[in-house]
Batch of 2 targets.
Target 1
Amino acid sequence: MRRRTGKLRTAIAIAVFALGAGLMTPLPQATAAASDPVTDYCESQCNDIMPPGENGNATLAQILAHRALGTRPEHSADQLGPYDALPAGASTLTDSTLNNFFNDSSFGVPDDQVASVTKPRDDVSITRDKKTGVPHIKGTTRYGTEFGAGFAAGQDRLWLMDLFRHIGRGELTSFAGGALANQGLEQEFWPQAPYTEQDLQDQADRIAAQGARGKQAMADAQAYVDGINAYRQKSKDGRYFPGEYVLTGKINAITNAGEIEPFKITDMIALASVVGGLFGGGGGGEVQAALSLLSAQQKYGVTEGSKVWESFRERNDPEATLTVHDGTSFPYADKPADPKGTAMPDKGSVKAEPLVYDRTGGAKTEAKTPVDAPKKLKPVQGMYDNGVLPADLFSSKKGMSNALVVSGQHTASGNPVAVFGPQTGYFLPQLLMLQELQGPGISARGVSFAGVGMYIQLGRGQDYAWSATSAGQDITDTYAVELCQDDTHYLFRGVCTPMEKMERTNSWKPTVADSTAAGSYRMQVYRTKYGIVTHRATVDGKPVAYTSLRSTYGHEADSIVGFEMMNDPGYVKDAKTFQQAASHIGYTFNWFYADSRQAAYFNSGMNPVRAAGVDASLPVKAEPAYEWKGFDPDHHTTDVTPATQHPQSVGQDYYVSWNNKQAKDYSSAGFGNGSVHRVDLLGDRVAKLVAKGGVTRAALTRAMAEAAVTDLRGEDVLPELLDVVRSKPVTDPAEAKAVEQLEAWVSDGAQRKENAQSSHVYSHPDAVRIMDAWWPLLVEAEFKPGLGDDLYSALTANLTIDESPSAGHGPTGAHAGSAFQYGWWSYVDKDIRTVLGRPVQGKLGKTYCGGGDLSACRDALLTTLGQAAAKTPAQVYPGDDSCAAGDQWCSDAIIHRPLGGLQFWPIQWQNRPTYQQVVEFPSHR
């Protein structure tokens, strides 16, 4: 086992120019110069894209000019058009036209394409290209290379990095304002990763003590921080810093008084905790799972109820699409034959742990008290009144990333082809930053999360490329700690032990950007040896606190060593060495690799070794017998499963991933990973390409692009529903018309796609509207009568019914792009096939539609179909701040969430990675 630790417009325009020479100074430009070429084995067959654009900083003058005149800073939107154009252009895509929709991601910048060269030190240059403004950082020393990366990050993402380091410390409202959404965001995140400043420093020190790699990683991090701080000071002195610092009251626009706080190493740890919390966790939710199990047992009895619950749980559904599909088994976190130590709550005893205390002012009243802003700032007053980020950024479900990789034996060239990337949401600027790093021991191009970009986290090297999808396997458990003495003491290994109270007090005053009235509040959590207290309850009559224990807690930045290896051409030389690098990533990710010879896959994560008999899906007693093996709470360490036990593969015919089940017997951490999953939109298409052979970059990109505009329900579940409906003639004219519209849509590919580019009208708008209205109605009519109100409600708390793209549905939120990951499609599919008498592996514990009677099921479906068809567009798409009621296209559309003063237009919905690569290496070192 491993052990791992008009007049108005004119007036505004005049105001812009009245700001003064200091704030009007453009971002500094350097004389253009060429850089030496570096070794690149991709030979112009590597591409990437990341909308809206590379530049994520805007001075106050640029923000006001944008609001007044519609102008935008250079390179803030130049990748949005090509990204948006792909759905319309995919059908005729060829390898030679990929550059119309993607950037050429070759290393270096041709001499005639150099826009500028900046030299923040003598040992590093930052070359930016004319087309996209991506920084190509080249250093002659390791320190200089990383200093340049930090300096470039400051140029492109200074405000964003500042936001996220404060989120990581639970201090967003004190920094950006007390808007209700800001309060909600920090209240969602901070309890997941509450740390003292010493905790953060201890994590950095532990990494530095982990041998030569760890020491180098922290030296690189310090150089990166030094680079950020160099740009921070230069931009402040030169008055070309992001304008948000003025609008939030940090710096005076006239006198330049104020400060951008220096960055430090512990900020990197805090930033890493945010990234991990968003995309690299897995498991948890055992209390809610226990509540639904109790509900099932109450309805059906313990034995039958447990069987029904397990069928909805779908830990290891035999019909689930697998990334490793060659039959290799990787057992992990399955249901034990004889569960031991399970700590089920007594009925009605569970109460969520309070978090917020001592609200004052605006925290209590939610009042707005706008400041008396200068006339020139009126256009941006209140721009953060609804929050700088979505309140549910951490609480909502995330759809994260996909990958399509085909091995060389099935491609036209004989070399592997990959189309992959992370699906990280749509923000302005993006959470990710695109860059190239070339220096001693580092050679890569790709993206990193802003603020932790000392290495490329997803991208390409000299002769290989890699990407990841969120895996989400179970690395978080819930323990029931028995209380002793009072509510703040618990038994730890037989000793009554005080809980550690952790607090964060935030206060704010209204600013130009956020009008929320002055206020404050205090957040409080209790930390135990078994994690953070989340609920209180009784178990067998005894009072307990339920705690959440995550294996990566206290190890937020340990993965830096794995990324260091991935960027090192001296380390990664083939698939196996890449897998070894990936094994050093503690967060739960699926890693994909391609070079000219091999395609490969590896699942990373600090998978704890559980005690025999422990059911990872439910709460467990906090007793030594049920602790993780090798558990040391004082150092946040535990035994973790060895790399050989993680799903992995080299040379499989193809790999697909869209946050689906990884391999046989590798248990899914959440509900609903069964017979229908959005990965099927990829898998079915790639399987057909592989069977045909001769796969090209364009063909694989087309498969991705087609899946990106396809409705999963329409493609994989609707045909079965229509079979039930058509089991007898449909005589009602309105119902018959609806059926015909749905059938026409299915035969045309069940796509949510414009009938012509920029028409903003779908090819089958009525069918899409009916589907969106019908799905929630049919699910309730199919399951609620059989399950009963209580169990139905409990199961929908475990897994939401729907996640269509439109703003009125699903947990991901409005205009977010990602869709169809979370929903009851698998349940509906299995149940309807059972009613139709078709083969089903892993049936649900009962048959629900019509109680198993085809005619009764048909009646339920037709009744709800008629109700859905009668709903108007305005009823189905009620509208929001961005879209009028009834505007179907806009309701689906992707809208980049502004994190600063710039705004963007809606684009066609695509269920697609935010940053995406298309790669095919023809040669190797």
Target 2
Amino acid sequence: MDRMNEGPVDPAGVTAALVGIEVYADGDEYSELPGPARDALRFAEWLRACGVPAENITLLLAPTPDFAEEAATRAAALGIPVTPASADLVRRTFIELDRTCELLFTYWGGHGVIAPSTMSRHLLLAESTERDPQSVLFDDLRRHLLCEDEEHLDLTRQIFIVDTCGWYLKRREREPVPRRFPQGDLSDKEIDQYFLFASRDGQGAINDAGLGTTEFAGQVLGYLHSGLRVLPPDVEELTRRVDRYFSDPARATDVTQTPVTVRHRSYAGSERDLGSARLRERRVLPVAPAHLHDALGRLHQRSTRHVGRFALSKSGIGAHAGLHAINVGYTTLDVSAGVPKRAAYATVRHFYDAIPNGRLVVRGAAGSGKTVLAVHLATELLESRAKDEPVPVLLTLVNWRTPPPECRPDGSQAGYDRLVRHFEGWLADQLLKQNLCDDAQTARALVDGRWILPVLDGLDEVRTPREVNADGPSGYLVTAIDRYLTAGSGRPAPVVVTVRTTGDDDTQPGLSSACVVEMQRLSVPEIVGALTDGVPGYSTDGQWEDLRADLRLGEASTAARRLDSPWKLVLAVKAVTGPDPQVPVTELVHALVRAGDGADEALHERLLAAFVPAACADAVVAEPRPPDAPTAVRWLAELARHLGRHASEDLTLSRMWVIAGERRVRAVQAVAHVGIVLFFCVACLLAAVGGPGHAVTTVGHLIDGTADLSGATGRRLWAAAAFTAVVTAAAAATGMAHRTWVPVVNRRTRGLRERFEGPKRSRLPLSILSGLEIGGAIGSAFGLGTYLLFGPIAGLVVGGVIGLSLGYGMEAKVGLDRTLSGNFFPAYYWLWDGLGLLAGAATGTLVFWLVDYPPLSGTAFGAAVGFFAAFAIGLIGWLRYVIAMTMMKRRNLLPWKVAAFLDWGHRAGVLRVHGVSWQFRHAELQHWLAAQERPPLSRRPSSGRWRRLPERVVPRVE
């Protein structure tokens, strides 16, 4: 229930606390403000005119000397004594409020600041000095007035008019020490609190010293005097009045001031930020069409899961045991009105809200925390997203498709429009690939309506052709983002981009109207705090004394420069902690504090070399694990070189086979295809000559020249020969083809732990059907071939044994994963199996009729052949992967179960999962691994392998 609008309150049931502070103890730090004390008196005069008793009004003033006498005279005329606005008296006033009243009216005028570390609003007290700033923490006061009183609490309607600045504290300014209020249990009563702030976070409030008032107070008092003298006033109309004034484009001022209204209804739990019309433009969208409501809801849920998985894949400063997240700061390079000059990781959501058009570019060196900041912002936006705001979607720009020539700009508006459409198409395609949308039409509708807020990570990782004639290494993409406008309004659409700085001005993205921030180096206190949290004994162990002494030098510290980013700290802490430290403490300390040419590079090289071995020794990573650290480094280096050769960042199992050499793998597969087909074709040729089941006799007749090849037998032989030629050519062609027939899988790659648990009960029927499909296809083919050679009994035995063993083994034990993503996706293959069976049955019926065989026999024969052919084609991608991994295993370059190794790398913090692929979590680590010298090729001894062959026929694709 909205208690503020329940009706008027008896003036005798109103209590008021009016605070006006114009002078402070440190006049140099906090300048005089001729205005707040005068405005407090004006509010007192209005309250008295409304009939509020003088004894119900507390007037706390710290006026300028020239106004002190006048203030006392005017207050006496109202029958209200002036109480000094000291910290103790202000605190006592709010603690001892008359809670028998129903309405509280509060005005506070003076200096105010925002602490960037907590985004809390501090109302400065008169005793504040530069060295000892004191304040009332507004949220602390607000909550105090919501708590239960031992006797009663009838202040169920509370109005706060806060006329202070909202500037952010500068980096070296002290954060005010708040005077706390007692807290207790929140009341069960419905309490309606209304707050009207003169400015939003990061902005100032205009004070006119000549008139002795503020622009904000003038508007509020103007409305109060213009309406009926009833309490409470119509706060909704008051909000609209103030909002219209400060949103008026004709209002000329050098300072952007945006009053903010927050309405909090306790117990009912409703809270809203009304802001100004100018700032609401950025986020509010037209009402979504009815057919998109469900899609938006699914997009929100899936994006939340997607961002959460990505965050868990980042082994940043918080991923190491005992090492907590650092509140990394960043500075604004292009300061716009209302945008703070600096902020930090924990407050990025508040910072983003101050950017009018929602365009943010995060710059920083490698490992400075850009991606972690973008992921945190996306998480915060998703958690607090309203229905009329776009859904944040996290995308990595390594997947950006360079536009084809026909979509590249030619200087005309039409050319730019084609480029933007290409960018929109790429966004829609990414929504599908990351399984954020179910169909292309919905994805395109969400993009065209600007219902997504793209969070684009890694602009520096975009590879652009040399012929690009635009600023920066990714000019087409920057141009497309720059012209990505809100539909129907022509304003820049919200977007967040991260980019690594390299010192080259050409890499600076030129997004118009974007707020550009630069990640800051970690300060010495942040470094010391991280080391204290993450390294046992850092504060007390004598081995660390030289480092502690160096860090005490502050900005002159050599070690601070070498540990000035979260990534560098992760490397250092990981190297000296864990069950098997890779770098002795004394060696690390010496390397951190010593000077000399090349010392920085040598230290970084040493820490990079220790990262993977430390991950191997980390006890928190469960099996399966690499056999030893050098092997893990060798395998990861091979993967990194593979990515470098193919100009990619994605390790996708369905394309992993190329790592062993495309032509080599395809040639081996073609030979395997032809070998299997020839076995079956030879059986067909012998059966055409001598009949099914008489292979031995037929071979004997062919050898001694007594076989009859005339008449119907001749026609059957020619038909069998033609069949042999066709299927052999098809087998060789499919083996050598580039296409693997693996369907596009939009679901993410499933974790190894999920797959080791076996099929869930809900999908057990599908698993049984899949096993029957596998066994039926392989068993029928080999059984049919054996029948043609040796007769029906042999065919049934061979087909049954092979079908049952492979059907059960490849589904239940190996877990045949033809999509190579861990996703159970049999329906795609069953469709093609069915089509192959029908096509084969029809063809076999016709051919057998033409060669004087019973048509029903042709139907059965063709169905078996078509079923197996369709199944074999669907198995091409999986078999190619098995061949490649077998070749890499024999050369001792990769493990046979490479997917299990990739899963280990993800859990160890070396890799991250993105959609259906793995990526190295840090480009610097990937480049270092790729630069490692490749060991000479070797083959492992084969002794003892034959005994284990039955249990390792094929590797499990985890």
